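As noted in the main text, all predictions were made from sequence alone. Below is one such record, for Radical SAM protein.
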Amino acid sequence: MKPNASLKDAAVTAAVEQVLRYLEKDPEANIPRIMKLVDTVTPKDWYAPQRAAFRKAIEEKSNWYQLILKAYELDPGVRQTFFRNFILNASLLGSARQDEVSRKENCNVPWAILLDPTSACNRRCTGCWAAEYGDRLNLSFAELDSIVTQGKELGTYMYIFTGGEPLVRKQDVLALCEKHSDCEFLCFTNGTLIDEAFCRDLLRVRNFVPAFSLEGFEEANDSRRGEGSYQSVLDAMRLMKAHKLPFGISACYTSRNYADISSEKFFDEIISAGALFVWFFHYMPVGSGAAPELLPTPEQRTELYRRIRAFRKTKAIFSMDFQNDAEYVGGCIAGGRRYLHINARGDVEPCVFIHYSNVNIRSCTLLEALKSPLFMAYHDGQPFNGNMLRPCPMLENPEKLRRMVHDTGAQSTDYESPEAVDALCDRTTPYAEAWQPQADRLWNESHPAGAQ
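Prediction:
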């Protein structure tokens, strides 16, 4: 007889709290003993794959083990809050609640929600999708608070600020962190607004982690993001590290910078600077400012695929390549399957790169948005391809996005220059056709049964 959900939640909470207390006493001495403790207080079949991976990292003292140790160089209050909010609330208890609601309501429920507090930004980067919204839109604090409150009811405890430059609204961001102290907040930022006072604020709220946009070394980075951008990020990282605060890197790869950001030198430099994670994003040619020439060639994308996976085995940093790592999450994660995006006008979009919607959070609930026509088309259509190296309905399967938008009557949310879905998909079709043969070869290498 299996324990009911409340008993399981209580047992998991007790186990996590006991492990955290145990580790705080002497991390390096106690980490190797941690699995014995976990195995003692949790049933054998609970989270078995995660426990096996954790045990292997400890036994081999691998780069993942070194990354765990780096967490104990952080401010203790920030570290403990992160572990509770991310591991316990967002990843264990929250995921269970998401699954429960998803089954009951027959719709996707997201693990994370991306929010644009504002469309304003103090930079204008070449090919930036966020620029398509203009610079005059904002979600009020009350609206942001309502979204988080509704999200927690569904089991969502992870919130990621995008923009615009989210820290243009830093006081509201901090207030949201304070009010929802049981959630973890991340932020994509250019780093220009990180200063001494803000670092002290982060030590106070404890549940905010920035990801600095960095697209290679100085020449490559500043050619797209503006002169001085590279130095701004370096300055921000130095401040964060000095205050023992966690941070990561967000890197968009293009045909021009792919070699830089997948180099060992780049990995070593961001690790030395103190970054704990790096998220790689494929350039998306969205909107009137799109630059299709920035799309990586099949050969360049393949090189990224191989390099990032190789460094994952040796470098003490958590890396995720959202386009090439889809197999680990079962394909496209948008449409609320793992995340959704709410722009600064309140439009609820399936993906931060897909600027089409049927609904606005100002006139519907979050659950109603997840049941809207476009979101249900995602729910019913995922995965969009059996080859997980072709996960996206826009970039690798443009016929899928074209059909979904037409069938659901979703409207463009690009208010500066509305873009018809046919124009967008016509732009990505040549890329999809060029990538397919190489994607199938790569997929067959690691999945002998072949691409579907």
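The chain has a mean pLDDT of 91. Residues 5-94 form one domain. These features were considered when defining construct boundaries for the mutagenesis experiments described in Section 2.9.
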